[in-house]
Design goal:
The chain is α/β, with parallel strands linked by helices. The chain is about 45% helix and about 15% strand. It is globular and about 45 Å long. The protein binds nicotinamide-adenine-dinucleotide.
Length: about 250
Amino acid sequence: MKKLENKVVFITGGASGLGRAAALAAAEEGAKVVIADLSNSDHQAALAEVGAVGGESLFVPLDVTNSANVQEAIAATVQKFGRLDVALNNAGIGEGFASFLETSEESFQRIIGVNLTGVFTCMKYELAQFVQQGGGVIVNMSSLAGVRGAAGLSAYVASKHGVLGLTKTAALEFARRNVRVNAICPYYIDTPLIKDAHPDQRQQMIAASPMKRLGRAEEVAKAFIYLASDDSSYTNGTQLVIDSGVIS
Ligand SMILES: NC(=O)c1ccc[n+]([C@@H]2O[C@H](COP(=O)([O-])OP(=O)(O)OC[C@H]3O[C@@H](n4cnc5c(N)ncnc54)[C@H](O)[C@@H]3O)[C@@H](O)[C@H]2O)c1
C-alpha cells in the first residue's frame, strides 16, 4: 500500500527545488499532486516528472503574497480533485547576506511577506478547508534558520522562526479536529535557491556540515512523506531538523 494513495497534495513553490522533489515523491506514493507556484515559474518539468510516474497533477498559478490568489488556488484544487488532504507550504525566497544595519526595511518586509505572511495566508485557507471536510495535514517548510540565528540573515531567520510559531499554534488549535501541523527544518540543500551563493560561501556551507556535503532535495522529500502520511499519526506541532548533525 502506498503511503499517500489517492490523497490530494497541494505544494506551494512546487515547480522547483524542494517543492518539486516533494511533488515527485508524493506522486510516487500514489498522490494527486497540485503544483502551486508563480505563473512564470518553470512548472512544466515538475508536471512532466509527476506524469512520468503515473501521477495525476494540476498546476495552479499562485503568488502566496496575494490572498485572493491563495483562495483561488485552493478552490481550484478542491474543484478538480474534490478535497485537499495535505498541504506543503514551501514557497520561499532567500536573501543575500547583509548585516542588520545594512538590511533595508523594504527587503525585510519582502522576505517576511513571502516566507511568513505567505505561509499564514495559505494555512488560514487550508485549515478552513480541512475543518469543512473533517481533517487534513499541513507541513510547513521552515529551515535550520528557524531554530537558530544566522549572522547576516536577519529577515530570513525571523521569517523561519515565525513559521515554527505558526506551526505550533495551529497544531494546538486544530489537534481535536483531525488536523496535524508539523514543520521541516533543513540545513543547506542543493537547490536553485543557493545556486547564486559565492563559491567561498558554498565551501563554508559544506565545511560546517558534519557529513561534509550539502543535503539533497530527495532527502527532504522523504521527511515530507513521513510527516504527510499516517506514519506520523501521533506527531503534531513538531519540527524535523534535517542537517547532517550541524546543531548536535
Ligand atoms: N535550499 C535550501 O538550502 C533550503 C534550506 C532550508 C529551507 N529552505 C526553504 O525551502 C523552501 C524551498 O526552497 P528551495 O531551496 O526549493 O528554493 P527554490 O528557489 O528552488 O524554489 C522555491 C520556489 O518557490 C516559488 N516561489 C517564490 N516566491 C513565491 C511566491 N511569492 N508565491 C509562490 N511561489 C513562490 C519559486 O517560484 C520556486 O519555484 C523555501 O521556503 C526555503 O526557504 C531551503
